[in-house]
Amino acid sequence: MKGYRFRAYIAPANKNRPGFEELLKIFMQLMVVTSGEVTESLSWLNQLDQQHKLTDDDYGIGDFIEDLKKKGYLRENPVEGTLELTAKSEQNIRKSALEEIFGKLKKTKQGDHYTRRTGQGEETGTESRKFEFGDAPEQIDLTSSIRNAQINHGLGEFLMTQDDLEVIDNEYKTQTSTVLMIDISHSMILYGEDRITPAKKVAMALSELITTKYPKDTLDILVFGNDAWQIKIKDLPYLKVGPYHTNTVAGLELAMDLLRRKKNKNKQVFMITDGKPTCIKKGIKYYKNSFGLDRKIVHKTLNLARQCRKLQIPITTFMIASDPYLQQFVKEFTKANNGNAYYSSLKGLGHLVFEDYRRNRRKKF
Length: 365
Description:
The strands form four sheets. A six-stranded mixed β-sheet has the order 8-7-6-9-12-13, with helices on both faces. The chain has a three-stranded antiparallel β-sheet with strand order 3-5-4. The chain has a two-stranded antiparallel ribbon with strand order 1-2. The longest helix has 18 residues, at 196-213. α1 crosses α2 and α8 (295-310) packs parallel to α9. By secondary structure, the chain is α/β, with parallel strands linked by helices. The protein has three domains: 20-85, no CATH class; 120-171, no CATH class; 176-361, 3-Layer(aba) Sandwich (Rossmann fold). The protein is 38% helix and 18% strand. Mean pLDDT is 84; it is low at 106-111 and 116-122.
């Protein structure tokens, strides 16, 4: 009788045990999940080693910890006697997030966004062309135009026609100021789903992308819960969710204030959130409603979206929740701002941020 014979699976011996570089990648991932808690990350690494036999007698977790110290990834706090991350580790985490989400990108010396466009920018170009209807008077190259008039009509009597005029285009400037808003309300870890870790990875990848490939751009990062406040790039691995409601209004007000100080014309806001606005601040008191889309809160949020639209600041919302009730609010918010919205799974979040960021580089306001 034909059939199948089943027996216990015996995993093949792993001859290539992870060395320092492989263990470092795992450790950096754990550091993001634990919000920079070195002791907790090493404890998890030990558990993984016990379950999956990551190391052997030749190179153990203890050897790995010593190498982390020697290579400058960890330092000991002489007062408390604990291990802490160094600036080298923080940069390594950002680079790992960049490679994981955006892929490996080469650093450019110029730091400019590639564009084929010329037009009404802020920097004068070097090439001239024939005058066309609609060109601004200040673009006229007087020296070349007068020379053309003398060549075409002679020196006896000065005469200049439209055919003599030449203009110099201003180079289209693609420098962009971006504000990244990260929701740190309690719902980001609610129902057993870890949504803050992928949000942090996206933020770290985006910051590394801008500082290495587009160094002339600016990136400001803020978090919002009951209130909103700005954080530094180096603080991203340590970001934690708090017992907060979602004050989207406070986040947008701070984002607008940060962008108002920027001189370049290209400005945009990225907002990563998983839920509806549930809180606004009135004076020193908070008005909260966690049970639905409170019209009082929603109206103020939509008004700010319209203000950003008037200021030509597009808002791209990344909704990492699938509730149709919440998606309807995002559609209404996006329509008020004339921006973009993506309803993404956690796995696809980074790719969508990258694609939209690159598209906005070439947008002229």
